[in-house]
Design goal:
heterotrimer; A alpha/beta (445); B mainly alpha (343); C mainly alpha (395); A: 445 residues; alpha/beta; Rossmann fold; 2 domains; seven-stranded mixed β-sheet; five-stranded parallel β-sheet; 17 strands; 38% helix; disordered N terminus; B: 343 residues; two-stranded antiparallel ribbon; two-stranded antiparallel sheet; globular
């Protein structure tokens, strides 16, 4: 049968193709001879901005995207230069990166690890992105970080707060500027002890997934060290929308503090429900009942509305900071978009600049050279005070903000006030405590 | 003991939301024989009616206040709602405060109109099509509706508080001789529960005691015969669709102070409300209500920490576990009729 | 060929040719041109086309033939993925054991789920499958975190045992391979300003898909397939004739569950990551959409539907306002803004809206899916041929 011959021929052809593939193992790079994936060849360089554009975190993603566009503008010499003027490293010239004009592609993570990886892969394989950045959850950050490690791309994490990202799942090609659960706990505990006393009984509601676990653990350990007692910790499903049945038993338990280890929609709903129950007007053990939200974001505060008033939490950055860097960033963001930036916008903007600066200092886009330039890099002027990008786990160490919901907001963006700037030394930990293996950097091709 | 009473209360409240949505779904299914996956979207639109009305009420003119500055150091722009100008600040504040209850009046005509438009414009063409097609087209519609809402209102939840009068909670314990502070329940949730009870009762009364309702029930049982009697059953069914949409919408309006509404709240409820309807038995109105309350109460019990220490993760699966057990022991749910949706 | 009728073997060969030439056909626009945005010929998307094709082909064996609408098939995909990932972590990065294991595990799991769910029919069956899938998702995301990785999922780690593989060279990471051929390796062909990528992983997945497609044709044309169709048209009558239909429907359920597991295993083989969202009910809903969009009960439909949805998800979502501005830069300013305002809600972050609209349009106007659309267009052309109608009328 001639048809069988055809099949055999196609098998032979496939064999030839795979043979060629073997002879030339590349991870999709037109310029494989340059020794790393997606080496920019022309007079432009492409960055990949992978943020949630659909799903519950879409607004956060939109703010990240605004910040990225602003960063690209500044890198290419547009606008007022923003943080480039206050950044302690002066390697960036405003002429792109290494003289190449910065271009970017955007993608939608949908806050799902599969979609995020698909989007990141298309940026790497199709658009030739040399760096991927963004994301609004730790699940996505860990997934995309692992992909970038495999592909030989630098990953600059966006908003991800779990210890895992630079803990047990850390990767040599991945870097995080945002703070983490451990730092939240360490920064919050002393302030809580000062304001609420050392003799408190805490009740935890914890989102039932990795980030929730690490946050609960961090807050628990650090508050217990201050003398607090943990009465109970109950896990709540991610898909839960009405938290009444978790909140109702809190008063009965004898606890006088409720800690909501929730983020995003979970946090908005659980806090709203808790305030609805009138918990904050109650007196237990002769003390005012208090509620704590370990991780705050402005968008969440906006969603919860007046319920956040007077509630303590921690944040990576806030636009009301008065250092030169923060003022410069708020000014250029505010002028362009008409409202102050969120902490998600800040961290993504800073990450982009840090990457560009590292490339300039390394003199190459090679991920290994960039990684080396970022490791143990000390800088200032980016809004968080003196900061160290620790080489051992690629985590930034900087001051952490303890914030409180504002009692009398003057605008819809003025929802939080800074209570305390916890110094770096107080939130620093040993790189080995979360396990994990950084591995060696992978330049790809 | 107190803990159990508390969770029953919780369950009734949760259950009333489930029951309201399931009731609307069953009304549509029972009358028109259409499986409406866009029902969650109707619930969501109802919630956004409340958001819209509170925005309309707070429409403001902007004055520039030179004594204060905004974040960029420019003079602060202060919004003054027009209601202040018209009614004075005190009355204006009360109107803004009562936006959610006021939206009930605003939402009813809108929801009925949306329901009727949906039935006439889309669903009508799907009566003769297989159930799978109905599910799919309404699912598509649900996606479109929620994306439209997202386009205008963003993805972030929008706080829509209850009037100040309903802040705080009622202390059942103190009222019934238990220790104070043990059985407390927010006023607004009590309002929600009573509201749901009234709506459910009026739907049943409407079907049971009015001529219109009688005809509709007859139509549900045997559509052709009723038509042969010269009654325009289609028009009544269209109105029933509008009514079901209004029930879903009102459930949404009143739900906004409990949880800040967002564009995907309908999808969050969709799967759950279908489980409720199926557990109750397809086509049975009492079944839907019963299953709504039953699942609400069981869900509340499963979230108790005494239960979770023995069976961790039970709160994650309780609804589905109950659904499986009920469907395996009672083939057509609690009160389902034979032959409905079984092919 | 292979025991197929002429028509079917023609289709199989056609699909094989399409799949083999996909890197060319999906990259019709030259690199760097404005239209390059629409190119789909890069490994990740091509792999997704064939993998979700397999998933939908399998789903169609159950839904298309028996009419049982399962809302829980994503669970089998997820279970298959986890199984394959654990094989790669424990045994070897060679994808073969992982894929085989994923099919087996998904088969066993679907046997259990099917055994229970098939006691009911209609929407009761749908809700039962949905319940199992949602339970799998919820547990995998939370309490099963030690096995599934929970929120952050599972990826290969440098420290994994991989007992069959030799130890890694210093500074390298484990990569999925097929007897040494890395799944990520590609051969690139530059022709003028066109760039075509031939990826090893894609061709492995494509071969698997062709086998899966072939098996599905055989099932469709077998007495077993005929029996399944009989179940769809009138199960009661079959029961009255004394036939027990349960073994047939259960077999169909398990086969389609194994297809889902195979797709899950391949996903891990192509992109070494698995997370619990893969099992969420929307993922189960997606495969239903794919099948209906393409054409239920047709052989090729599910593959077309899967490709269409994945294309929209990956291509439309990446078009942002800057790209629109580039495209319409030739228009006068006011008009440019206007056109962009019109289009903007449907692309980028609005791609869900487009998906919903297209989906509604297909269900309303083309109940038979894209396949019916294709047939209608073909008929249109046939009718236009002069004299053809007359001939047809005579015969």
């Amino acid at each position: 049968m001639s048809k069988i011959n055809l099949t055999r021929r196609s098998v032979l052809q496939t064999g030839a193709i795979t043979g060629a593939g073997l002879a030339l193992p590349t991870y999709l790079s037109a310029a494989s001879h340059s020794g790393f994936t997606n080496a920019p060849t022309g007079d432009t360089v492409t960055l990949g901005f992978n943020v949630p554009q659909t799903g519950p975190y879409a607004d956060e993603g939109a703010d990240e995207l605004r910040a990225y566009k602003l960063a690209v503008d500044h890198l290419n010499g547009g606008g007022d230069g923003g943080l480039m003027n206050t950044f302690s490293s002066k390697a960036l010239q405003g002429n792109g990166i290494l003289g190449k004009k910065v271009e970017f592609v955007t993608g939608d993570t949908q806050t799902k690890s599969d979609a995020a990886r698909a989007s990141a892969r298309s940026m790497i394989e199709k658009d030739g992105a040399v760096m991927i950045t963004g994301g609004s959850s730790s699940g996505v950050a860990v997934a995309v970080q692992a992909l970038c490690q495999e592909a030989g791309i630098i990953f600059m994490a966006g908003l991800t707060h779990s210890n895992d990202t630079t803990g047990k799942d850390k990767k040599a090609n991945g870097f995080r500027h945002f703070f983490n659960s451990y730092m939240s706990g360490a920064a919050l505990a002393p302030i809580l002890a000062d304001n609420y006393g050392k003799d408190r009984k805490a009740y935890h509601l914890t989102a039932d997934y990795n980030w929730g676990y690490t946050t609960e653990e961090a807050v628990r350990t650090s508050t217990e060290a201050m003398g607090w007692e943990t009465v109970a910790a109950v896990k709540t499903p991610l898909t839960q929308t009405d938290f009444s049945s978790y909140i109702a038993p809190v008063l009965q338990s004898g606890a006088d503090v409720l800690v909501l280890n929730h983020y995003g929609g979970n946090m908005v709903n659980s806090l709203t429900n808790a305030v609805q129950f009138g918990l904050r007007e109650k007196q237990v053990n002769g003390k005012n009942f208090e509620i704590i939200v370990p991780l705050y974001s402005r968008l969440m505060a906006k969603g919860a509305g007046a319920n956040v008033k007077g509630i303590f939490g921690s944040a990576n950055w806030h636009w009301s900071l008065q250092d030169e860097g923060s003022k410069a960033f708020v000014k250029s963001f505010g002028t362009k978009y008409g409202f102050p930036p969120s902490q998600a916008a800040h961290t993504t903007y800073v990450q982009t600049l840090l990457y560009a600066d590292a490339v300039e200092r390394a003199g190459s886009f090679n991920p290994c050279a960039v990684g080396e330039a970022l490791s143990d890099f000390q800088f200032d002027g980016m809004g968080n005070g003196p900061t160290l990008y620790r080489g051992a786990d690629h985590q930034c160490f900087k001051d952490v903000l303890v914030v409180k919901g504002k009692e009398n907001p003057t605008s819809e963006f003025d929802l939080l006030e800074i209570v305390e700037i916890t110094p770096t030394s107080q939130v620093t930990y040993d790189a080995s405590i979360f396990g994990g293996e950084l591995g060696a950097c992978n330049p790809g091709a | 003991m107190e803990a159990i009473i508390l969770q029953v209360l919780n369950g009734l409240d949760k259950g009333s939301a489930y029951a309201l949505i399931a009731l609307g779904l069953t009304l549509i299914f029972g009358t028109l024989g259409v499986v409406n996956f866009a029902h969650g979207a109707l619930f969501m639109i109802g919630a956004f009616c409340a958001v819209t009305l509170s925005r309309i009420i707070s429409i403001s003119r902007t004055i520039i206040d030179d004594s204060q500055t905004d974040f960029l150091g420019n003079p602060l722009k202060v919004d003054v709602p027009y209601v202040y100008d018209w009614f004075g600040q005190a009355t204006g504040d009360v109107i803004i405060d009562w936006a959610v209850p006021l939206s009930i009046l605003f939402a009813i005509p809108i929801m009925v109109a949306i329901g009727v438009a949906m039935e006439r414009g889309l669903i009508k063409h799907f009566y003769k099509r297989p159930h799978a097609d109905q599910i799919l087209v309404t699912f598509g519609l649900a996606i479109v509706l929620q994306e439209i809402i997202k386009y205008f209102y963003g993805a972030n939840p929008i706080p829509t508080p209850a009037p100040d009068a309903f802040r705080g909670s009622f202390d059942f314990g103190a009222a019934f001789g238990f220790d104070p502070n043990v059985i407390i329940y927010p006023y607004w949730r009590l309002v929600y529960f009573s509201f749901a009870a009234v709506i459910i009762a009026s739907v049943f009364a409407f079907l049971q005691f009015t001529t219109f309702g009688m005809v509709v029930r007859a139509g549900m049982a045997d559509r052709e015969t009723v038509q042969l009697l010269g009654i325009n059953i289609d028009r009544r069914f269209t109105l029933m669709f509008g009514m079901a949409a209004a029930v879903a919408g009102l459930a949404g309006v009143m739900y906004t102070p409990i949880n800040s509404p967002n564009y995907h709240m309908g999808m969050d409820f969709l799967v759950l409300s279908f489980v409720v309807v199926v557990v109750g038995g397809m086509g049975s109105l009492p079944g839907a209500v019963l299953a709504g309350f039953l699942l609400g109460i069981l869900e509340s019990f499963a979230s108790m920490r005494e239960v979770l220490t023995i069976l961790p993760g039970l709160n994650q699966i309780i609804i589905y576990l109950v659904a499986i057990i009920i469907l395996l022991t009672r083939p057509r749910g609690l009160m389902g009729r034979k032959g409905v949706m079984e092919d | 060929m292979f025991g197929l009728e002429y028509k079917d073997s023609r289709m199989l060969i056609l699909v094989a040719i399409l799949v083999a030439l996909a890197p060319f056909m999906l990259n019709p626009f030259p690199e760097g041109s404005g239209m390059a945005q629409f190119n789909a010929g890069y490994p990740d998307l091509m792999q997704r086309f064939v993998i979700f094709g397999i998933f939908a082909i399998g789903f169609n064996i159950l839904f298309g033939l028996t009419g049982y609408l399962s809302f829980g098939h994503a669970a089998f995909l997820g279970v298959g993925s986890y199984a394959a990932m654990w094989m790669m972590k424990l045994l070897t990065m060679n994808v073969v054991p992982g894929i085989i294991f994923s099919v087996l595990v998904a088969g066993v799991f679907s046997l259990a789920v099917g055994w229970i769910s098939l006691r009911r029919s209609g929407i009761y069956f749908s809700i039962l499958t949905l319940a199992f899938a949602q339970m799998s998702y919820s547990l995998a995301y939370s309490v099963l975190t030690p096995i599934t990785g929970g929120e952050t999922g599972l990826q290969p780690k440098v420290t994994d045992p991989r007992i069959l593989d030799g130890s890694l060279a210093e500074g390298t990471i484990a990569k999925a391979n097929f007897f040494g051929l890395e799944m990520g390796s590609s051969f690139e062909l530059q022709l003028g300003s066109w760039l075509f990528t031939f990826n090893a992983g894609y061709y492995l997945a494509a071969v698997v898909m062709l086998i899966a497609f072939y098996i599905s044709i055989r099932i469709f044309r077998s007495p077993f397939g005929l029996m399944l169709r009989a179940v769809k048209s009138n199960q009661q009558r079959l029961n009255y004739t004394g036939l027990n239909t349960k073994p047939y429907t259960l077999a169909a359920f398990v086969i389609s569950g194994m297809y889902a597991g195979l797709a899950g295993g391949l996903m891990v083989a192509m992109d070494t990551q698995v997370g619990a969202e893969r099992m969420f009910w929307t993922a189960s809903g997606e495969v239903v959409l794919m099948t209906i969009l393409g054409g239920v009960g047709t052989l090729i439909g599910p593959v077309l539907g899967a490709s269409a949805i994945k294309y929209m998800e990956n291509i439309l979502s990446k078009i942002n306002s800057d790209i629109l501005h580039q495209w319409f830069a030739f228009l006068p300013d006011g008009l440019e803004e206007f056109v962009i305002t019109l289009i903007y809600p449907f692309i980028g972050k609005g791609w869900h809206l487009t998906l919903g609209l297209i989906f509604m349009a297909v269900v309303i106007f083309l109940p038979g899916g894209l396949v019916e659309g294709g047939q209608r267009i073909a008929n249109l052309f046939k009718r236009k041929m002069p004299g053809k109608d007359a001939r047809d009328n005579k015969s």
